[in-house]
Amino acid sequence: MRIDKVLANLGYGSRKEVKKLLKDGSVTVNDEKIKDAKQHVDPEKDLIRINGETVEYREFIYLMMNKPPGVISATEDNRDETVIDLLEAEDLIFEPFPVGRLDKDTEGLLLITNDGQLAHRLLSPKKHVPKTYFAVIDQEVTEEDVTAFRKGVILDDGYATKPGELNILKSGERSDIELTITEGKFHQVKRMFEAVGKKVVYLQRLSMGPLRLDETLELGEYRELTEEELQSLMEYEVK
């Protein structure tokens, strides 16, 4: 990869600014000054320094966000704020994207990365990656609903869902539940409850595969995945 592209990708400035760094003799590769912006380097093997400071290269970024309501799960939108708009400039450099979608009014766990292969494996219908949601329902949720969800319900368009694991946390005029599903149809959780005559009034995603929402993250906050979280995702995807 060209040295100017490596440094620009890592946030050391625009291509123009990086070329100035090179021209000034600020950049060394394996302890040799490099002034040619077209010089090719292997950022994973070569020792790159700027003014004596070692450049840490990485190709991918993995972020966990507690998605707030009112923000859409997209990279760009002409009308609404997106989850990418919430990222710091140092993370935007990697050109990350949300893995899957949460509805505009839904909160909770969202994985944001630029690792397309990982995203594909987590979203592939063939993988049946489980996703768990917490929801508040506007009516009493019963054992009959648990049984119906376990068998799969028929959505408004005639689609028969795969079995869902419904756990009633609190039942009454408003019920609290957790639901685990292994597919991701449009508005699926809401439509599954509509299929049994009930309405979701609050929805939050708690987990996706082995990745669970960090409850210390405020709405709109995000952080990088820990080594353990990333390893669990990488191991999970090949099962």
From TrEMBL:
- Alphabetically list the UniProt keywords: Isomerase, RNA-binding
Task: Spell out the InterPro entries in the cross-references.
Answer: PsdUridine_s_RsuA/RluB/E/F_cat, PsdUridine_synth_cat_dom_sf, PsdUridine_synth_RsuA/RluA, PsdUridine_synth_RsuA/RluB/E/F, PsdUridine_synth_RsuA/RluB_CS, RsuA_PseudoU_synthase, S4_RNA-bd, S4_RNA-bd_sf
One annotated GO molecular function: RNA binding
The UniProt entry, under SUPFAM superfamilies, shows: Alpha-L RNA-binding motif, Pseudouridine synthase
Q: What is its EC number?
A: 5.4.99.-
Enzyme kind, highest EC tier:
isomerase
Asked if the record carries the keyword ATP-binding, the reply is no
Q: Which residues form the RNA-binding S4 domain?
A: 1-59
Q: A Pfam family in this protein?
A: S4
Q: Name one GO biological process term.
A: enzyme-directed rRNA pseudouridine synthesis
Output the CDD domains linked to this UniProt entry.
Answer: PseudoU_synth_RsuA, S4
Q: Which GO terms describe its cellular component?
A: cytosol
* Family classification: Belongs to the pseudouridine synthase RsuA family.
PANTHER family in the cross-refs? PSEUDOURIDINE SYNTHASE (PTHR47683:SF4), PSEUDOURIDINE SYNTHASE FAMILY PROTEIN-RELATED (PTHR47683)
Spell out the protein name for this chain: Pseudouridine synthase
